[in-house]
Design goal:
Layout: H1 3-37, H2 40-71, H3 75-107, H4 119-140, H5 143-173, H6 178-210
Amino acid sequence: MPRQQYDRQLSELQDSLLRLASQVETSIGRAIEALKTQDVDEARRIIADDDAIDHAQYAIEDTALHLIARQAPIAADLRLISAVISIASELERMGDYAEGIAEIVIRGANEPLLKPLVDIPRMAQVAQRMLRDSLDAFVNRDAEAARRVGMADNEVDQLTTVVQNDLLKVMVRDPASSERALHLIFVAHNLERVADRATNIAERLIFLVTGQVVDLNV
């Protein structure tokens, strides 16, 4: 395969990854809006749409493996293709977390929200920004930008602690509200995991650029 054609296919593979990231970010935003408005119909659409995210991830992996098989890539290209496969898997899991939030919306449909949502939407905004920034770092091969993604994860962790502590206090004061409180704790947990996955993408980019294995959660 001529190098020019191969480079075009690598670029198309990266474009597919960015489209998947956009799908996932949109799904997270939709899930939080569905939670805020208790929109069960939208929650069901989010769950159905997760199939498209799964299929996109499989397609990226299949294309990547075919490139490896046909081209026998040099080390730098192989590292890139491996990173794409890994990042696509992280994105698919983020989609699952959005789906999980949608499922919580459906389970709690017959009861009002326990309290106005303030910190959870903030968590979602930070996690979505981390996702965008990690993919921007990947596109630009910017290891320093990737390190900043890891720093942002601390904000999500702090918000998770605030949400959990607030909801535990509510459960102590009013045990009858425990199920609704647990629903929101699960939402916060899913958003924390989205942020963790974005951090994993940033770590993979640093490895791609520098060859160093780093732990940004330290």
